[in-house]
Amino acid sequence: MKPPPASGLLFCIFAAVGLFYSVIPRSPIHDVQRRQINSSQKYSGGIGTKMTVLPSWYISENDTVEINCFMHTDTSNKSDKMDLQLVWTSLHTKTKKVLMSQRASIGIFYVLNPVTHEHQGVYTCRGDGSLPDIYVHTWHYFIWVDADSSPPASIDVISHNRSQFANREEFTIGCQLPDDNNQWKMMRFDSWVGTIAECPNQVTSDRHLSCTSRSALPWADDLYWCESAAGDRTNALNVTTTVVMVVLETPTLPVWEGNNVTLRCLYRNRTTKEFTTKFRTVFYKDDRLKFVTNGASVTLPSVTKADEGLYKCRHPEEGLSPIRWIGVKARPDVAQKSDVLHQSSTRTL
Ligand SMILES: *[C@@H]1O[C@H](CO)[C@@H](O)[C@H](O)[C@H]1NC(C)=O
Ligand SMILES: *[C@@H]1O[C@H](CO)[C@@H](O)[C@H](O)[C@H]1NC(C)=O
Ligand SMILES: *[C@@H]1O[C@H](CO)[C@@H](O)[C@H](O)[C@H]1NC(C)=O
Ligand SMILES: *[C@@H]1O[C@H](CO)[C@@H](O)[C@H](O)[C@H]1NC(C)=O
Ligand SMILES: *[C@@H]1O[C@H](CO)[C@@H](O)[C@H](O)[C@H]1NC(C)=O
Ligand SMILES: *[C@@H]1O[C@H](CO)[C@@H](O)[C@H](O)[C@H]1NC(C)=O
Ligand SMILES: *[C@@H]1O[C@H](CO)[C@@H](O)[C@H](O)[C@H]1NC(C)=O
User: Fold this and answer.
1) In the chain, at which end, N or C, are there fewer CB atoms within 10 A of the end residue's CB?
2) Looking at residues 309-326, what average pLDDT do you find?
3) Alpha carbon of 301 to ligand 5 centroid (Å)
4) Do 233 and 227 meet the contact criterion of CB atoms below 8 Å apart?
5) pLDDT in tens, 60-74
6) Which ligand has its closest atom nearest to the C-alpha of 41?
7) Ligand 4: which residue has its CA nearest to atom 10?
8) Fold identical between 6-145 and 244-333?
9) Residue ranges per domain, the chain?
């Protein structure tokens, strides 16, 4: 859900959106404003909003979150001005609310402090519709407040050992449910259009709920979770789908301290659609070069909190995969054990 910062990328978005809208029928997407564009004309540039959510959109209760919403343009036409709105769609009630309106020249700065579970939902930075003849790209962020206790049900990708998928690749996500009641649904936040909807064609059997999807968009950073009619939820699962031919295979859920974690870089052949892993790969952590391997995979032995971060890999000709967060959780039993060891060694001294 990180918006690409460069205006070159913004242009790619417009190009991709242009392509997307020209190949599928226009659907009534609420927050995307676009009037008739003569399809034989090239975009001369684009206008969009840009949004940042700091420190992260995936946070814990009582954290502080800053939301920034700006106008962003890659045209040199300085008279293209619009006013901005920050709109919130509540996860609980699904209602929309304009949180703030502001002149584009000033931008919106909005703070949630302290964050509660009630603040969860989709935050949209959009124009006010005053540029009717121009396509305005709108950013959406889902602010997810992590469950403070262990959630009653769990979610994971079941068809693959990864959560990055190439364009039109099919994948299945499943939830393990606590009981046989079938009041659970799998939900999906679509970062491209900013909507929350039920994952289509869900199958439930024997305390297991699954949903098979296939991405059709240029790229998306989506969020999946299961929720019950009573309001119970699993944690959220990040899923990235991308048009690039390189994806990174990592654990899909946060790992325990002490685990060995294998990262694998996969390249998808454009013709055969098969994935290969035999190439010289460069792995990056937090934008810094970390490993170079010949077999496309690398293992982080016995990970610690210091291994936590954003990873990506590079294929020699095809370039970079999307980034992927690897979270490392402290093992509560290990912490107790080292406490005991510490005490006993103190005693012998
Ligand atoms: C689209 O633009 C081209 C070139 O500017 C023009 O020749 C054509 O008539 C336009 N088509 C429509 C449907 O407006
Ligand atoms: C957040 O703050 C409230 C009120 O101070 C407290 O009751 C609650 O336990 C806190 N939650 C967490 C996860 O620290
Ligand atoms: C610049 O934007 C204004 C307002 O949207 C529009 O009227 C004008 O034609 C644009 N100029 C150019 C050169 O595109
Ligand atoms: C996922 O990883 C496990 C353990 O490495 C392996 O046994 C399994 O075949 C993998 N599954 C897929 C779909 O790649
Ligand atoms: C990690 O790998 C090392 C070396 O291969 C092995 O000895 C150890 O048991 C592995 N640890 C876990 C938690 O699998
Ligand atoms: C993709 O697969 C085809 C058929 O096996 C092969 O000829 C081609 O070289 C492959 N392309 C790349 C970039 O590896
Ligand atoms: C999802 O991605 C965000 C941003 O990269 C990260 O902060 C968060 O921890 C991830 N969530 C999980 C469960 O991996």
Assistant:
1) C
2) 94
3) 7
4) yes
5) 999 999 999 988 776
6) 1
7) 161
8) yes
9) 6-145, 153-243, 244-333
Instruction: Answer whether 0.70 is exceeded by the pTM.
Output: yes
Q: What is the pLDDT of residue 250?
A: 96
Which atom from ligand 1 is nearest to the alpha carbon of 41?
2
Distance CA 163, CA 264 (A): 12
Q: Which residue has the tokens 């059709």?
A: 216
* Residue 108, pLDDT score: 92
Asked if 121 and 86 touch (Cβ cutoff 8 Å), the reply is: no
pLDDT tens track for 137-189: 788 999 999 876 788 899 999 999 999 999 889 999 999 999 877 789 999 99
Does the structure show a pLDDT above 70 at 314? yes
What per-residue confidence (pLDDT) applies to 345? 39
Q: Is a pLDDT exceeding 60 seen at residue 348?
A: no
Of 214, 61, 88, give the one whose Cα is nearest residue 147. Answer: 61
Substitution candidate for ligand 3 out of 44, 80, 133 with most atoms within 8 A of CB: 80
Domain 6-145 fold? Immunoglobulin-like (2.60.40)
> b/e for 98-124, b at 16 or more Cβ within 10 A?
eeeebebeeebebebeebeeebbbbbb
CATH class of 153-243: mainly beta
Residue of the CA atom closest to atom 8 of ligand 4: 161
The verdict on the CB of residue 156 being under 6 Å from ligand 4 is: no
Report which ligand 2 atom has the smallest distance to the Cα of 116.
Answer: 1
CATH class entry, domain 244-333: mainly beta
